[in-house]
Write a structure and sequence with these properties.
The protein has about 600 residues and is an alpha/beta fold. About 65% of the residues lie in helices and about 10% in strands. It has 20 helices and 10 strands. Helix 3 packs parallel to helix 7. The chain starts with 8 loop residues before the first helix and ends in a 7-residue tail after the last helix.
Length: about 600
């Protein structure tokens, strides 16, 4: 991933220009509108002093008043224009940032799971998020400041050229000395920028760890374990150690930057000191008068100011563009290709076929190896096995979240890769182990839409067994969920959340139902009852059930036993018990703990 998308400042500059232009072209205009005022404001201050001294020296009172009046009017107009420009940019840049964030979220949701779940993918996502950090309107992110920094740097360069042209009229030797100072400063700053590129590779993983720890410490779900098991001390030490490592990198960078700036200022002081000495000698020798002396003195001081502005501007813009580069490279991550959607009336029959499918998260290793099997339309399949056998990976492959590295997966005779993603996802109703609740009403958590079907909602609430609970709530289906986010929200029990997930899957419908250990947090009896309910409600639908408790899936037509990414046993519950293999041994082991009268033979 990193080799294909190497850092490129020019590409990042084109990226931010192109994306921002798509959001609001006027940002360009208002950003660069300030450039003339940057140069003229400083130049006006220098010439004002020289003109006032000259007028005062010659006792020209009317000319002096005219100079002051013109300058005051210019300052008023310039100030009003700058305030107006800042207001426009603040509003427009904030809107643009929100659009960047929206695009980031959309790209994140569409990027391949294997990329997002990898360490490199997480690092790049963190880098991209850093480029858009500062959701509060008072904070400025890289995507907001890029154009302002471009305009500032261009303005500084223009100022440098204007002052260079005027100073060259005084003496070419002075100009040569000033340009030598500029070159030295540029080379030193360029070396600093190269260091920053290497430094980012070291601190981004630390930033990701810090953000993770902050998120966990704020999460109410994590807080229970952290408090009950006394983990606060350990987490604080871990946070402190990570923060200390981050501070060391920051301190090292700060020391180096301080040394570079000291060296630049030392060179600048030596050359500027000589130039001032030259001007004083010119004045004492009568080569220039007092007003000319003040003018040139101001121009040289201004030149140094522009020089430092250019050096600082290059560093600031380069750091911003490196952040933008992270966003650009994240934006350029491969997205699953959209196959042409089939006609609306064309559907599959719900049959599933894996043909020599292999998949691995890293090169040279496979989690699923050369897997082949067929599931008939309407058949109920259970996939069981120990932790790490590859059950969840198999489900993600089936649902199109992962793409096989070898082989193919067919749905109703069609390769999943020929189905558009929206079309593919429409065919599946999936319930995972970790059930995601939205901070909104129960109705919207089930329908996942702005305008749900009331009759269908009532039907699935009754089928899922959640209707009794809903009827006991004052706001019924409009009751809010996710306490802590919404003030008037309620909390559902684990079993009630399972029922809500069932209602959500039933409401969505589809040709294939997939349940990836959604009842893992329930006791064995409650889990079996829930699976039986799922089995009854999905009658006639192709269904895939995953569980680590073997007794819960006895009702399925066939059971696949997975071991190290390979189906080692396949058959009905009774057939696998008679086989006396790994399934039978594991079932016997579990039954010692779960045996209830009449539950297990």
């Amino acid at each position: 991933m990193n080799q294909k998308n190497k850092s490129s400042v020019p590409q990042s500059l084109r990226f931010i220009f192109r994306r921002t232009a798509a959001h609001d072209k006027k940002i360009f205009f208002y950003s660069f509108l300030s450039i003339p005022f940057q140069v003229l404001d400083r130049l006006a201050d220098i010439y004002l002093i020289a003109l006032i001294v000259d007028a005062a020296t010659h006792h020209e009172e009317e000319r002096l008043l005219l100079i002051l009046l013109v300058f005051a009017l210019y300052q008023l107009l310039s100030g009003l224009m700058m305030r107006f420009t800042e207001w426009q940019l603040s509003t427009r840049n904030y809107r643009s940032k929100m659009k960047f964030l929206s695009r980031y979220a959309a790209r994140y949701m569409r990027t391949e799971f294997t990329t997002i779940e990898s360490t490199a993918g997480k690092d790049l996502a963190q880098r991209a998020k850093n480029a858009m950090a500062g959701v509060d309107y008072r904070d400025k992110s890289s995507v907001e400041t890029a154009f302002l920094q471009c305009a500032g740097l261009i303005g500084s360069i223009c100022g440098l050229f204007v002052y260079t042209g005027i100073i060259s009229l005084l003496d070419p030797l002075i100009l040569l000395l000033l340009l030598t100072t500029s070159a030295a400063g540029y080379l030193l700053q360029r070396a600093m920028v190269k260091y920053d590129q290497k430094d980012k590779r070291r601190y981004i993983p630390l930033d990701r760890k810090l953000w993770y720890l902050v998120k966990e410490l704020r999460d109410p779900l994590s807080a229970k374990d952290i408090r009950l098991y006394g983990l606060m001390g350990w987490l604080r030490r871990l946070f402190g150690e990570t923060l200390a490592s981050r501070r060391k990198l920051h301190a090292k960078r700060s020391r180096l930057q301080y040394g570079v700036l000291v060296l630049i200022n030392l060179i600048n002081t030596l050359f500027t000191g000589y130039i001032y000495y030259y001007l004083i000698r010119q004045y004492l020798a009568g080569g220039i008068d007092i007003s000319q002396f003040l003018l040139y003195f101001g121009l040289i001081t201004g030149f140094n100011g522009w020089l430092m502005s250019v050096i600082d501007g290059i560093e600031a813009l380069h750091m911003t563009l490196l952040n933008i580069d992270d966003l650009r490279r994240f934006d350029a991550l491969p997205q699953p290709s959209e196959a042409e959607a089939p006609p609306a009336e064309q559907t599959t029959d719900g049959g599933i076929r894996f043909e020599h499918v292999s998949f691995g998260y890293q090169e040279g290793t496979n989690v699923i190896s050369d897997m082949s099997f067929t599931v008939a339309p309407g058949e109920k399949i259970a996939i069981v096995g120990l932790n790490g056998a590859g059950k969840t990976t198999l489900v993600k492959l089936l649902c199109g979240l992962y793409t096989p590295k070898e082989g193919c997966i067919l749905l109703g005779g069609r390769d999943l890769r020929t189905l558009g993603r929206e079309e593919l996802f429409r065919r599946f109703a999936v319930v995972f182990q970790d059930i995601y609740l939205l901070p909104t009403s129960i109705e919207r958590n089930i329908t996942l839409s702005e305008q749900g079907d009331g009759d269908r909602l009532s039907e699935v609430l009754a089928l899922s067994g959640l209707q009794e609970k809903i009827s006991s709530l004052p706001d019924r289906e409009q009751t809010l969920l996710v306490k802590g986010v919404l003030e008037d929200a309620v909390e559902l029990s684990g079993g009630e959340i399972q029922k809500l997930a069932l209602a959500r899957a039933l409401y969505k419908g589809g040709e294939i139902f997939v349940l990836d250990e959604p009842t893992a947090k329930l006791d064995p009896i409650a889990e079996q009852e829930m699976y039986l309910r799922y089995g009854e409600l999905t009658k006639g639908k192709t269904s895939v059930f995953i569980s680590h408790r073997l007794s819960s899936t006895r009702f399925c037509d066939r059971i696949f036993y997975l071991e190290n990414g390979v189906i080692t046993e396949c058959g009905t519950h009774d057939e696998l018990l008679r086989l006396g293999g790994a399934y039978a041994r594991l079932f016997e082991t579990q039954s010692r703990y779960y045996r209830e009268e009449g539950e297990v033979r």
